[in-house]
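Extended Data, panel c. Modelled sequence:
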Amino acid sequence: MNNRHEMNTRPVLPCIYMPFPKNSLNMSCLVKIKPEYRKEFPEIMKAELSKYVNQATPTYIFSMKDDSGFYVSREQNIFKLTTIFSTISIIISLLGIYASVTLSTDRRKKEVAIRKINGATPATIVHMFCKSNLLQLFVSACIAFPILILLLKSWLESYAERISIGILPFILIFLLMAVIVAITIIWQLWRIARINPAEVIKSE
């Protein structure tokens, strides 16, 4: 009968449940019950044990799920903390992208104004800005993703039951960042386009 009693980083080993010897100080008993009796079972078991066990003898009643949960609770806490810090990191990254694109468009207001005067279409200007910013995003992804894959691979190798890392999550992350960059650029250029080009050149 194989059950998990340890962390997921350790394999499930075969186990045999043997009768405990007489006069043993450390005795345990496995009882199979129906799910509908799960709540009242501890009280019934304690009442039954009191007939055979001294009141001073400590008794502990817990389920197999509680037993395995004791070992994986630490891992679950680490997962929760990792999720929180990952969410914070993503938010900071998105704010950084927004600030970078905003600063880039503000610095190139004069260039946008001159291009508008020379007859450049909004689509041409958007393409120019998107090309440079998306290229930076692509270079950053080429550096960050391999490092992330190596870290994830090293972490997953500590588990007994391993899963493979697909490329789809990384593609979705890149596309999400690209959409955010494009939306930010379009919004900033729309804001600049409402300003008279002559006023922009004069102020610069």
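The chain has two domains: 35-61, 71-203. This feature is highlighted in the accompanying rendering.
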